[in-house]
Known about the structure:
Blueprint: H1 4-15, E1 27-28, E2 48-51, E3 56-59, E4 76-89, E5 92-99, E6 117-125, E7 134-146, E8 151-163
Parallel strand pairs: 1-4, 6-8
Antiparallel strand pairs: 2-3, 4-5, 4-7, 5-6, 7-8
Amino acid sequence: MISRRSTLMLLSGSLAAPRAAFAATPREITWDDLLPPGVPYSEIIGEGELDEVNDTWNPIYDENATKLNDTLDGAYIKMPGFIIPFDVSAKGVTEFMLVPYTGACIHTPPPPANQLVMVNAETPWPGDDLWDPVWVIGKMRTQLQSTDLGQTGYAITAEKMEIYEW
Length: 166
């Protein structure tokens, strides 16, 4: 029979265990995972308009472009992408859009909302690493937002970031 004192000792020992032992492992996702199940990528790109004066193509997205994968709402994830900064200081970048390819939203028309992610980083990402692909690790939310560069479908509070290497 275990005494009351032994039980209290066991419980207090478990409270002192390092948090790292209980840390969750993030679910690694790709950009395809942002699409809702059953909606292929080919169905989120609508028609488009050719702007001959500016020599650009402006996509016209249909309702599939704002359909989100609700299973990712609240998920602890790890995903790769490129940074389009919104808030840059001497310490680095804390608010940015994560995009699937370099130059998205700046040199090309923005991808659809379900292919763009707003990120708020707890620790600033160095400003001299803005062109490198990154891993973003944190809690994801499904959330349509409008920005100057495009409509985003997801948001992540990034607790950790690292250089993406393949």
